[in-house]
Amino acid sequence: MRGTKILIYFLLLLSGIILGIFLCQKMGSWSFISKKNAEPQIKFDDKQKVEWATEFEVVEIKSNLDTSHQKAYFYKSKSKNPKPLVVSLHTWSGYYDQHDPLAELCRSKNLNYIHPDFRGANFTKDACCSELALSDIDESITYAINNSNVDANEIYVIGGSGGGYATLSTFMKSKHNIRKFSAWASISDIVAWYNESSIRGNNYDENILTCTGSENGALNKLVAEQRSPVYWKTPINKVKHSDLYIYAGVYDGIQGSVPITHSINFYNKILSDLGVTDSSLYVTDKEKLQLLEYRAPLGDYGKISGRNVCLIKNYKNIKLTIFEGNHEMLTEFAFNELLEN
To answer: Are 34 and 80 in contact (CB under 8 A)?
Structure first.
């Protein structure tokens, strides 16, 4: 009798061990699947609405194209002397009221600042660097000039991710005389990004289908190209008086949703349009492949904000920097670079 009880206890214990191992394996598999399908959490692309300091005013700017009103957060410098204007552009899924660390930096330096909506998140045909959206950005600059003491020679446009995409687009099409553009983690080719996003399964592909008026799940490639600055004609005269800084974290596309090829290809496109013949000024296919394969510096290019720089290419006032980072903007560095003479 006693031996039977021991045997029963042993069998129950063995069953419990086997069940525990089975459950652990299942949970581990589920965790792996969940992590595999999840988009990495990148702090920079924070689209949450936040409370803004009272010094920042919400203004409404009437569109000259369709008479709609686009909101913006606006800070007017308290200086009696003309001050620079920083035009900060929101991310792909963001709006004018999303968190923007550049706002406080501008206030601390008493600079003029505007954070326009330009049709909001890229979920509609009116957004996604459409004619309407780009006109909204230009009209927000006009509004700031007319309603504050802007130094017309010191207007800066800056953005990251979808804001970097809008920065490159503004560089290509703005009617204003803008001194500096700073584009971080930028999208430049909506056709390519649709395919990349579809593979990643992160829903940006669905946004693109909506923005481009695509039907039956098939990308309208023509419209997608019309929304992609890498396909546009470079404004040659603008390059003579505007600085363009392009930055990308070398891990983006792995730890983030925008491969570094978007920044590299746009930089190369500008040089090609300018008729540059020196191949050493371009990012070569070999250099691109090395960056994508090893994600490490290709030489001693120094550091920015404590990060190793993987590659620098520049031609006159056009500069590309690939640094050790992901889908992000090194905000204080970017801000200080804008203010450098």
So the answer is: no
Q: What are the start-end ranges of the H helices in 98-257?
A: 101-108, 131-147, 162-173, 190-200, 204-211, 221-226, 236-239
Q: Characterize 40-75 residue by residue with b for buried, 16 or more Cβ atoms within 10 angstroms of its Cβ, and e for exposed.
A: eebebbebeeeebeeebeebebebeeeeeebbbbbb
Burial 148-160 (b: 16+ CB within 10 A, else e): bebbeebbbbbbb
Question: Whole-model pTM?
Answer: 0.88
Q: Which tokens belong to 239?
A: 């390059």
> Is residue 291 within 8 Å of 254, Cβ to Cβ?
no
DSSP, res 253: T
Determine the Cα–Cα distance for residues 88 and 86; give it in Å rounded to an integer.
6
pLDDT at position 240 is 84
Name the percent of the chain lying above pLDDT 70: 86
What is the residue-wise DSSP string for 175-194?
A: -S--SEEEEES----HHHHH
- List, edge to edge, every strand of the sheet that includes 180-184: 57-62, 69-75, 112-116, 83-89, 150-160, 180-184, 243-249, 318-323, 307-315, 303-304
Encode pLDDT of 235-284 as tens digits: 998 888 999 999 999 999 999 999 999 999 999 999 999 999 999 999 99
Question: Under a CB-based contact definition with an 8 Å cutoff, are residues 161 and 45 in contact?
Answer: yes
- Reference 55, options 120, 113, 99, 141; nearest CA is 113
Residue 167: other Cβ atoms inside 10 A: 30
Q: How confident is the model at residue 25 (pLDDT cuts 50, 70, 90)?
A: very low
Q: Is the pLDDT of residue 97 over 80?
A: yes
First-to-last alpha carbon distance for the chain, in angstroms, is 93
Which residue(s) pair with 319 in the sheet? 245, 314
pLDDT tier at 28 (50, 70, 90 boundaries)? very low
